[in-house]
Amino acid sequence: SLTAGIVGLPNVGKSTLFNAITKAGAEMANYPFATIDPNVGMVEVPDSRLARIDEIIPAKKIVHTTFEFTDIAGIVKGASKGEGLGNKFLENIRQVDAIVHVVRAFDDDNITSVTGTVDPQDDIETINLELIFADLDSVNKRYDRVAKVARTTKDKEAVAEFNVLEKIKPVLEAGKPVRSIEFDEEEQKIVKGLFLLTAKPVLYVANIAEESMADPDADQYFQIVRDYATQDNAEAIAISARTEEEIAELDDADKADFLAAEGVSESGLDKLIKASYSLLGLATFFTAGGPETRAWTFKKGMKAPQVAGVIHSDFERGFIRAETVSFADLDQYGSMQAVREAGRLRSEGKEYEVQDGDIIEFRFNV
Ligand code: GDP
Asked: Cα(12) to centroid of ligand 1, in Å?
C-alpha cells in the first residue's frame, strides 16, 4: 500500500508527531495488532460520511479505512555525500510515495535547533538541497551512458530517456526539484523509472507553537512555510505536534471537548491524514448492507474491477458489475428504496471509473 514518509531536520518535532500517529493508531478498535514495523504508523482516515451511511443502512459496526506513515530518521547536511545516516536516509525516502516534510515553527530556548535559529525557510532548503544533490547524482550517472546508447543505436527508448534527462538536468542544476517540471504522459513513465526523490509529491507541515493553534494563519513562521510551499507547487499545513501527542490519547468525546476549547474544528493529525491522502491521489469508496459499514481506499483513476480487487482478488477475477450509488445521492434520498425509485442506483460495468464517495455492491462469479 502507499505510504507517506515523514522527514525533517533533527529537533523539529518528527518523533513527537510520529508518537501521536502511533498512539492514535493504537486507539483503533478494529486493528488491535496494527504495529507491523516500528517505523510504520497506521491511522484511521477520518470520514464523517461513514456515520451518515450507517444511519441510513445500519450495521453492527463501522470500519474506517487506514493510512500509513513511515518515520524516516535523521537527515543531516551532507546526506547526499553519504554523511551521517545519509545513504540509508535517502534509500528510505526512495521507498515512500510522498514526502511529509516537518519544519520547526516554534520558539523554545530549551530546545536547540540544529542551525542555531528558528528559520523555517533555511531548514526546508537544507533538506531539499540534499535531495536535489542526490537526484543530480543519479541523473548524471545515467546521462552519459544513455546519451551514448541514444547516439549510437538511435534506440527509441534510449532517445526518449535521454530527452527526459536533458529536461531534468538543468532544473536540478538550478536548485529546483523535478516536481516543478511539466511532463507529458510518456515522459512521466520514464521519470517514474528514474526513482528520483524530488519527483515525489510533498506536503510541508509547520510544527507551530501551541499558542498559535487557534489562528495558524497569523503565525509568522507558518506564513513563511506556506509561501515556500506555494512556489514549490505544494501544500502546507500547520499543526502542534506536542498537542497532537496529547490529543491522540483521548477518546472521541474528550477529543471533541479539547478541540472546542482550543477553538479548532479538526485536529492537526486529522488534517495531516486527509492532506497526505489526497497528496497520494487516494480516494474512498464504501460498502454497506452487511454486518459492517466500511470505507476502503483506492487510487483515483482505477476502474471498477481493480477497485473490487481492493476487497478481494476473487472480486476482481470474477467481476460482473458494480451496483453503485453516490454518497451525495444516498444522503439526499435518505434510503436505498428512495434511491432506486429515483433511478439513482447505477449498474456499472468494467470500464467504469470509480468516484470518491461511491457506495458499491460488487456482483461477481466465484
Ligand atoms: P525530532 O528530532 O524531529 O524527532 O524532534 P522531537 O520530536 O524529538 O522534538 C524535539 C524536541 O522538541 C522535544 O523535546 C519535543 O518535546 C519538542 N517539541 C516538539 N514539538 C514541540 C512544540 O510544538 N512545541 C515545543 N515547545 N516543543 C516541541
From this structure: 6
Question: What is the residue type of 56?
Answer: I
Query: Which ipTM value was assigned to this complex?
Result: 0.92
Which residue, judged by its Cα, is nearest atom 11 of ligand 1? 11
Q: Give the whole-number percent of the chain exceeding pLDDT 70.
A: 92
Cα–Cα distances in angstroms (integers) from residue 126 to residues 79, 121, 132, 198, 328, in the given order:
10, 9, 10, 13, 45
Residue with CA nearest ligand 1 atom 18 = 13
Domain boundary, last residue among 183, 198, 213: 198
Number of domains in the chain: 3
Whether 18 lines ligand 1, by a CB cut-off of 6 Å, is no
Is residue 292 situated within a structural domain?
A: no
Residue nearest to atom 9 of ligand 1 (CA): 13
Is position 284 within any domain? no
Distance between Cα 148 and ligand 1 center (Å): 50
Collapse the DSSP code of 274 into the 3-class scheme (helix H, G, I; strand E, B; otherwise coil) and give the result.
Answer: helix
Contact 110, 44 (CB under 8 A): no
Point out the domain boundary residue: 159, 175, 198. 198
Sign of the torsion formed by the C-alpha atoms of 43, 47, 50 and 52? positive
3-state helix/strand/coil string of 171-215: HHHCCCCHHHCCCCHHHHHHHHHCCCHHHCCEEEEEEECHHHCCC
Residue whose cell numbers read 499543526 = 239
For the stretch 194-228, pLDDT in tens is 999 999 999 999 999 999 988 999 999 999 999 99
Q: What is the pTM of this model?
A: 0.86
DSSP state of 289: S
- Per the structure, the complete domain to which residue 174 belongs is given by 130-198
Task: Please identify, by atom number, the ligand 1 atom nearest to the C-alpha of residue 10.
Answer: 2
Cell numbers at 70, concatenated: 513511515
- Provide the residue type at 183 as one letter: F
Provide the residue count of the chain.
366
CB burial string 175-199: b at 16+ within 10 A, e below: ebbbbebebeeebeebbeebebbbb
On whether residue 295 sits in a domain, the answer given is no
